[in-house]
Amino acid sequence: MYRAGQIRPEVERYSMDDALEAYRRLESGQLSGRAVVVPHA
Questions:
Q1: Residues 33, 11 contacting (CB under 8 angstroms)
Q2: Mean of the per-residue pLDDT values for the chain?
Q3: Is 1 within the bounds of a domain?
Q4: Is 16 within the bounds of a domain?
């Protein structure tokens, strides 16, 4: 479905410095999609 363009994932990117905040937001349910930690954001 993704390849066909029928769905679009919700992704929020975080820097390594903000990785703990990303985890806290996921754990508390503040994110509806995925959190991705990128090394050089």
A1: yes
A2: 92
A3: no
A4: yes
How far apart, in whole angstroms, are the C-alpha atoms of residue 31 and residue 41? 19
Q: Identity (one letter) of the amino acid at 15? A: S
Residue 3 included in any domain: no
Full 3-state SS string of the chain: CCCCCCCCCCEEEEEHHHHHHHHHHHHHCCCCCEEEEECCC
> Whole-model pTM?
0.71
Q: Enter the tokens of residue 11.
A: 């992704």
Domain of residue 40: give its range: 10-41
CB atoms within 10 A of CB 39: 6
